[in-house]
Known about the structure:
This protein is of the alpha/beta class and 210 residues long. Helices cover 52% and strands 12% of the residues. The protein has a five-stranded parallel sheet with strand order 2-3-1-4-5, sandwiched between helices. It has one domain (9-208): P-loop containing nucleotide triphosphate hydrolases (Rossmann fold), CATH 3.40.50. It is built from eight helices and five strands. Thymidine-5'-diphosphate binds next to helix 4. The site of thymidine-5'-diphosphate has 15 residues, from helix 4.
Amino acid sequence: MSTTAPARFISFEGIDGSGKSTQARMLADTLRGAGHDVVLTREPGGSPGAEEIRRLVLEGDPDRWSAETEILLFTAARRDHLERTIRPALAAGKIVICDRFADSTRMYQGLRGAGLREQVDALHELMIGVEPDLTVLVDMDPDVGLARALGRNGTEERFETFGADLQARMRAGFLDLARTHPERIATVNGAQTVDAVAAEVLAVVEPRLI
Ligand code: TYD
């Protein structure tokens, strides 16, 4: 795929508190304002079944599942999301903006131990088999991101108590992924005002719209 190939399936990625959810929402609003038909969705979740899996995996005891079981649960949620929400929307000619997709499993589960990344990729190939046309990586210093994430105080504390160390490794992992897949992943600097980040996001996305 060339860097100017049209993008209809767009994902946002980044560490906790990177501001990617805000950016995904702002992009959806901007594109809708320009007359596009947009489905804004998220992972884990985005379909009724996947939202149920989201509760299983994000609420309760953080040690409830092993990393391997989490890979299965996140991939199961993704499969349902793809079948019920993403594919039908794309088939109807809509733009899909997804807050997190498979890159999150590659980082959050794949970096937790030896051999896990390979398992994530193998299961992805077997059960999902698609990547977004364009992934916007909102890059952010983990100290700033963690402070933001903890400040939100929701019930989903599962991953946000991981600490700055793992977040730093994930940031490096995301940047690595972006270097490996420059045709798909564009990095924007999250350490700016919300509006400045949004402008960077739009500069990346606009040339890719049909
Ligand atoms: P999200 O709702 O995006 O949280 P935030 O807005 O704080 O980034 O995601 C919830 C958590 O789920 C987040 O900590 C990352 C984690 N996650 C995984 O561990 N693996 C995955 O495959 C996905 C999609 C999310």
